[in-house]
Amino acid sequence: MAMQLRIHVPxxxxxKHWLGVLRDTNTPSAVFRSAxxxxxxxxxxxxxxxxxxxxxxxxxETPLAPCPATFIDPEMPLMVxxxxxxxxxxxxxxxxxxxxxxxxxxxxVRDEETLDATCYLNKLxxxxxxxxxxxxxxxxxxxxxxxxxxxxxxxxxxVDPSLVRIVSVVTAPPAxxxxxxxxxxxxxxxxxxxxxxxxxxxxxxxxxxAGDRTFGTN
Length: 218
Description:
With about 220 residues, the chain is an alpha/beta fold. It has helices at about 15-25, 30-45, 90-95, 145-155, 175-180, 210-215, and strands at about 5-10, 55-60, 65-70, 80-85, 100-105, 105-110, 115-120, 135, 140, 165-170, 185-195, 195, 205. The chain contains six helices and 13 strands. The strands form three sheets. Strands 1, 4, 5, 6, 7, 8, 9, 10 and 11 form a nine-stranded mixed sheet that branches. A two-stranded antiparallel ribbon has the order 2-3. Strands 12-13 form a two-stranded antiparallel ribbon. The longest helix has 19 residues, at about 30-45. It starts with 6 loop residues before the first strand and ends with a helix.
């Protein structure tokens, strides 16, 4: 399937460890939040490898001699888009890896009967500069409705889908297939690809409602 070319599940032992903590129904909310921070950090680390970030080569002076050095290009536009509310849970880890990125929030709510996503908050700028790197934090990719709506908002503002990276903890085939067909250039870094969805559109085995478990709500 085409999606296998663009979905990466890093075999990092720390990602596997924190995923196990998140899946466990007995994990308390405070520990769940910490685990989300950690898995967000490591998934972001993996997502920004492989020349996604623009760099510049220069020469610096060490205390002893001149030395070649490589830095992240300070002129490169870089933004992070957390999908509210659960996407906020990954942000501490994401920002640890990308401390200079601008942050623009998008909020969606899902109708639990139709499973359609409705946007209730959009803080994206009207225009996004060309060549902007965009990292989206969204813990769960289930039906794909929210991410399809997010990508529509980004692309109509000029974002190149090939420069977008999605960081997600648990994903399911329906969302991945939908995104692969609409945005084949997109790249996703996930903790796991689960087997599917239940009749209510929740990922199985999943980890429950990431927002509720993060913020201690029902």
